[in-house]
Amino acid sequence: QVQLVQSGAEVKKPGASVKVSCKASGYTFTNYDISWVRQAPGQGLEWMGWISVYNGNTNYAQKLQGRVTMTTETSTSTAYMEMRSLRSDDTAVYYCARGDYGSGTYYLDYWGQGTLVTVSS
Amino acid sequence: SSELTQDPAVSVALGQTVRITCQGDSLRSYYASWYQQKPGQAPVLVIYGKNNRPSGIPDRFSGSSSGNTASLTITGAQAEDEADYYCNSRDSSGNHLLFGGGTKLTVL
């Protein structure tokens, strides 16, 4: 069965960086994109960006450009999201999700369990 | 516009039908997908495309679209359907994804 298993919770100080991993199993890793979505406490979902695992192309949300980098390691079927210059408002649960195309849309059909990143001095 | 707009909260009586809507210019070009999220859990895809349900999603969930509005309908709402629901589509450029602000569904 398809699974996305994320790394554990992180606590970081303002200005630091964090790297969250997302290990995929149960499908051919290079056949699908990976999107990253975050959710601040009590807030809605925010799309951060996606990466084509096939060719490494990325597309990031404008507000995060320059602070976020998404990569993949096909040998281990793992996706990574690194965020730099962390601020307190980056405190959120970060999700990875598998992206697929079909039926006239792009959708996120499997999600990781989420990784809580807390930014606090 | 680069936004998807949802009503913040909707309620429905147990067993009745409820429609949750999502408005945005990008929906004239792309179908929405819909996600259910219960407290402390990751979102779950419930509808994608014109009206497609992933395996395991009950057939009481259906989707539709007209103009700049996408709708998620739950026919015969159950207590376990109480959750937050988010719509999602590409933006008008096709290069980014958008999420609506979410609708909190209460089943009375």
Please outline the helices and strands.
The complex is a heterodimer of chains A (121) and B (108).
Chain A: E1 3-6, E2 10-12, E3 18-25, E4 33-39, E5 45-52, E6 58-60, E7 68-73, E8 78-83, E9 92-102, E10 105-111, E11 115-119
Parallel strand pairs in A: 2-11
Antiparallel strand pairs in A: 1-3, 3-8, 4-5, 4-9, 5-6, 7-8, 9-10, 9-11
Chain B: E1 5-6, E2 9-12, E3 18-23, E4 33-37, E5 44-47, E6 61-66, E7 69-74, E8 83-90, E9 97-99, E10 103-107
Parallel strand pairs in B: 2-10
Antiparallel strand pairs in B: 1-3, 3-7, 4-5, 4-8, 6-7, 8-9, 8-10
Explain the overall architecture.
The complex is a heterodimer of chains A (121) and B (108). The model of chain A has no long low-confidence stretch (mean pLDDT 96). Chain A has strands spanning 3-6, 10-12, 18-25, 33-39, 45-52, 58-60, 68-73, 78-83, 92-102, 105-111, 115-119. Helices cover 0% and strands 56% of the residues of chain A. Chain A is an all-beta fold and 121 residues long. In chain A, the strands form two sheets. In chain A, strands 2, 4, 5, 6, 9, 10 and 11 form a seven-stranded mixed sheet that branches. A four-stranded antiparallel sheet of chain A has the order 1-3-8-7, with no helix packed on it. In chain A, a hairpin with a 5-residue loop joins strand 4 (33-39) and strand 5 (45-52). The mean pLDDT of chain B is 95. By secondary structure, chain B is an all-beta fold. In chain B, strands 2, 4, 5, 8, 9 and 10 form a six-stranded mixed sheet that branches. A four-stranded antiparallel sheet of chain B has the order 1-3-7-6, with no helix packed on it. Chain B has strands at residues 5-6, 9-12, 18-23, 33-37, 44-47, 61-66, 69-74, 83-90, 97-99, 103-107. Chain B has no helices and ten strands. Chain A binds chain B through residues 35, 37, 44-47, 50, 59, 61-62, 95, 97, 102-109, 111-114, and chain B through 30-33, 35, 37, 42-45, 48-50, 52, 54, 84, 86, 88-90, 95-102.
